[in-house]
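BUG: 3D viewer hangs when loading the predicted structure for this chain

Environment: internal workstation, default settings.
Expected: structure renders.
Actual: progress bar stalls at 90%.

Input used:
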Amino acid sequence: MNKKETSSGVQKAEALADNGNSSKKSVKKSAPAKQVKHTTAKTEKKQPVKQVKKNVKDKKKKPVKSERAIKRQQRKELRIQKKLEAAKIRAEKKQKRLEKKLEAKQKRLDRIAAIKQARAERRERRKERRDVLKHESKEARRERIAEERKAKREARVAKKQAIMEERKAKREHRLKVRAEKRAERNDKRHAPGFGGWLAAVITLGVTTLALGTMTTYGWINMNGMQAEIASTHTESVYELNSIVDNLDANLSKARVANSQSEQVRLLSEIAIESEMAETVLERLPVETQFTQNVTSFVNKMGDSAQGMLRQISGGKKLSESQIASLEYMYKTNAQLKKTINELVSEAGTGDVLAAMRGKTDGLFYVSFGELENNPVEVPKEINDGPFAENVKKASSKNLQGLKEISASEAENLAKKYFNDYNVTEANCMGEATAEQLTVYNLLLKTNDGEMYAQISKQGGKVVEFNSYKDCSDKNFSVERCIDIAEDFLKSLGYSGMKPVWTSENGTTCNLNFVYENNGVIYYSDMVKVKVCEERGIVTGAEALSYVLNHTERNIGGGNATIGKSEAKAKLHEGFEVKGARLAVIPVEGDEVLCYEFNGEYEGSEYYIYIDAATGNEVEVLTVIGTAQGRALM
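Structure tokens produced before the viewer hung:
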């Protein structure tokens, strides 16, 4: 059965194969449509699928092989390029190393050549020195060494002085630029048209308001401008803090320094920093009563340092009095440092302006007010004239009998007082009160800048005046400056004034005038005047002491119960008297008639006051900084 089935199956397959072959042959010959339709479904499906797969496979294989080859080629080229770049970098580094080696070698050769040259020069100098010493006596050698040392000291002092002058010139330039900007702002503020009319109306509406607080010499700081200058005031406080810290370090070193070179260096720094501190204090919007002690101390500290510098430059040592001054300056500055550091730390960044506000409860006022009761005693030394810093605490009763003027009258008086300055406009900026005195603050415009003045509300007296004028050359002598100042005081109505002290600061002549009557001078009635030695004009005046204290007194030579010769006998033996006169001086809030003796003892200058009634020694003052100031007897 199997054989039959097998044979029949084979036969069927052969028959099918024969049919297929015959059909294929017939298709190739005629390819009729009907014969194609009679082919089996299996044959129709399988034949096209195999052909499609084969074509797809061929299409896929060819692009894959090409892309890989391209990537391999790109990677190969990238490797070659990196190798080239690395080789180039190595070559450049190698070249730089070679150049550095050559440069170092050249420097080494130059250094060796310089050392050889220096050695040769030293040998030559030693040879010349030996030749000089062979023919030089001991006395000549001492003189030569002294001259060389003196020349070195003078060079160092000149260098420090040049630095101080440069800083001073920069400060004057800043003040001038500030004045020009202020003038420009005022011109814009008072421009014609509706804006100018509106500004005038607003100004008239607020003339009775206090617009600010007084600074070091009484100038005001308008409240309306505080927002604009807040950053400036904040910077000033931090600058003052830094300066005081530097002063503390230098004063601490100066107390123990013994060599002249170190003393010159430290005292030069102290003089420069004192001037910087004074400039910063002038910018602070604080009333005079809170800063006058600090300003006075800083001013005296700078002058004292300069006086010590001159003495050391002359080959002398510091005196016991000057050493005591250094100790005083160190202790007082330490207290000032502590106060300002506490102020800055308590106020905090950005709150310094807020600390300045207020009258009695403000942090700034409280801090500076504490400095009024300074526990450190000031040595009785002067460098800007006897009693120049004294202002008697008088009440305004000295002006009560005088007429009270208005703001417009003050403006007219200012134009009259300063007629020689070609004042084109005078504007009252408000009122301020200091030392029981109410004043009008005035801004004066001239053809060459601005000026500031304060005129008392009662009586219309000039209390203070200041202007920013260029003053760089010296064309007028001190004697001529005295005449100019006397004419100026007479034009203000201050008659009977006598010059008692002069000092020069660069090209500015500073003069102290006091009232004189019946041969007696009154130090309480003092006016300070600044004269520019280039232009021969008064650039500043301060008459607060005179305005507060001046009154008719019944004191004269007849009130003295002892004679001049008897008073002279009370002086120390060896004291050389250069001048003597009667003077009324302030003593513990009162006025005492004394004999004033000016003279020298062992190279130092003194003022000694003998009570004209009792013969007791009332006051002894020693003068420092005599190269800058001199008394007029």
